[in-house]
Amino acid sequence: MTLSLFDEPPPRYEAPQPIAQGAVLLRGFALDQGEALLQAAQQVIAAAPLRHLMTPGGRAMSVGMTNCGALGWVSDRTGYRYSNTDPLSGQPWPAMPACLLDLAKRAAAEAGFGHFNPDACLINRYQPGARLSLHQDRDESDLSAPIVSVSLGLPAVFLFGGLQRGDRSARYGLAHGDVAVWGGASRLAFHGVAPLADGEHPVLGRQRINLTFRRAG
Ligand code: MD6
Ligand code: FE
Q1: Which of the listed residues 19, 137, 143, 190 should we mutate to test ligand 1's pocket, taking the one with most ligand atoms within 8 A of CB?
Q2: N or C: which end of the chain has fewer CB within 10 A?
């Protein structure tokens, strides 16, 4: 039997791809759990809807966000912080679904960070044009833990720079099922997401969903 270009098996996870000291891409690592992860994310979104948070500067973010886990990342006119309740409902955030927690722990271990125990999972929805400008994740009290970021749906261009805002940043394509992990010497690296190109993903349609896990408290 010959394997044509059109019936190639889907790409499978192979090995970590280092991008900086303490930072790796795990391409395809979440592929075989994509459906379960999406179902779990949809359950969270049903209980704590996506919203466009206000930046301290007074602009609505283009990315829609919500959270699950003990702590959730929020932004408003007073600043960025973690909160143990959803400001929209006043209720605790939905619990972190077991399949999400399990994936985050396995990805961290694969990247060389054992014993990762995230208490915060930020769910981000990018529609075409949505972007995240270069920033550091530094609202977490435990900076010894890495960040695990899972991409689902439309592909995006991930910008990964250095420890200074002005450092040159490299661009990496992130596809459905890819996981990025950064910690150690890269924990405070500047990073962002270029404006999402329009397209149609077979499962998710015109959107990208990103799950970002941290140890916040
Ligand atoms: C991403 N997200 O969507 C990466 N950081 O691929 C982030 O880096 C991020 O969405 C801090 C706060 C919200 C975020
Ligand atoms: Fe970030």
Answers
A1: 137
A2: N
Task: Supply the DSSP string of 146-190, one letter for each residue.
Answer: -EEEEEEES-EEEEE--SSTTS--EEEEE-TT-EEEE-GGGTT--
The Cβ of residue 19 has, within 10 Å, a number of other Cβ atoms equal to: 18
Q: What number of residues does the chain have?
A: 217
Taking the CA of 193 as reference, the closest ligand is 1
- Cα separation values, 105 from 45, 66, 120, 149, 171, Å: 22, 20, 13, 12, 25
Chain-centre distance of CA 200, in angstroms? 20
Range 17-214 has CATH code 2.30.40.10: no
Burial string for 50-66 (b: 16+ CB within 10 Å, else e) reads eeebeeeeeeebbbbbb
Sign of CA dihedral 141, 193, 213, 122: positive
Q: Would you list the domain boundaries of the chain?
A: 17-214
Residue 11's pLDDT is 72
Closest listed residue to residue 161, CA positions, set 132, 121, 203: 132
Q: Whose CA is nearest to atom 11 of ligand 1?
A: 137
Query: How do residues 106-133 score in pLDDT, each as one tens digit?
Result: 999 999 999 999 999 999 999 999 999 9
Give the binding-site residues of ligand 1, using a 6 Å CB cut-off. Answer: 63, 73, 122, 124, 132, 137, 149, 158, 191, 193, 210, 212
